[in-house]
Amino acid sequence: MARITIGNNVTRGFVNLVADRRIIVGTGSYTNGAGEKVFKESVTVFFDANFDGEIPAKGKYVEISGDLTVQPRKDNADQLNATYNVRFKNQVVEKEAPQKAAAPAGAGADADI
To answer: In terms of domain of life, where is this protein from (predicted)?
Structure first.
């Protein structure tokens, strides 16, 4: 598979890792029926040497915008790697984290599904 670039893309998620000029943004997780925590997709964000903003801290909820590049991993071609390369501070914006919604009053338990 070749490298694919998706222009003008936006990704929102929590910063899971900060290392030098790189962060990993996760799009969330859920607990499956067996009680195991399953992490959804994550995106690696590389900051250009000329980045004119502040790199967000771990745990912050951010919105990343720019060109998203998707390609096979070098160490495992069966898995895909998604990355952003950012240069400007308006490409990385801290947002208010989404709040968990409470279930409606008449909703059944998970076991009812």
So the answer is: Bacteria
